[in-house]
Amino acid sequence: MSIDNLKSLLPDYAKDTRLNLGSVTTTSSLTDQQLWGAVLACALATRSARVIAEVSQDAAGHLSAEAFTAAKAAASIMAMNNVYYRATHLIGDETYATLPARLRMTVIGNPGVDKTDFELWCLAVSAINGCGRCLESHEQVLRGAGMPREHVQEALRVAAVINATAATLEAEAALTAV
């Protein structure tokens, strides 16, 4: 179980996704922890059992137990936050932005890994979940911490490719089940 296995499962029409999957996981300028935490958190955000199983095997070989748990925490907390903050933004009444969320989010302040790495994973998950408010917030924190835009972009590329992989494999499974 691995990224290579995922690549082999992608159909010929998804050649670009296959090549991008290889590229984002082998030519990254992110640290190993940043990259594989983003890959794992994004896999979890896709909710694709196949992608999660394959990615988690590779990620376990690149992440400490603490980082593995923190990547899972990033996916979990953003599953909640992305819904809440996207909804309050989409309502269009900025008063909601001034109200306290009253949602527990202590893991963001103490994720068990470097906070910048955790913020990067939260940004990548927010891209998959489509929350503009969270994307803006996490990007500002990352840029404030000195992370170059190229690294932020790289996390977005990881999110896009992992999401495309999951979407393609899930679609293929549905088509063959018909």
Explain this structure.
The chain has a single domain, classed as Up-down Bundle (AhpD-like). It has ten helices and no strands. The chain is mostly helical. The mean pLDDT is 96. Homotrimer.
Q: Brief overview, please?
A:
This protein has helices at residues 3-9, 15-26, 32-46, 49-60, 65-91, 95-98, 106-109, 115-129, 132-144, 149-177. The chain is mainly α and 178 residues long.
CATH topology: AhpD-like
Q: According to CATH, what is the class?
A: Mainly Alpha
Q: How many β-strand runs?
A: 0
Q: What percent of residues are in strands?
A: under 5%
- The CATH level-2 architecture is identified as Up-down Bundle
Give the tally of structural domains: 1
CATH superfamily: AhpD-like
User: What percentage of residues falls in helices of 4 or more residues?
Assistant: over 70%
**How far is the first residue's CA from the last residue's CA?**
26 Å
Indicate the structural class. mainly alpha
Average of the residue pLDDT scores: 96
- Overall shape: it is globular
Largest sheet, described in full?
Answer: none
Count of individual helical segments = 10
Question: Segments where pLDDT lies below 50 for 5+ residues?
Answer: none
Tell me the series of helices and strands, N- to C-terminal.
Answer: HHHHHHHHHH
Multimerization status: single chain
Rg for CA atoms = 16 Å
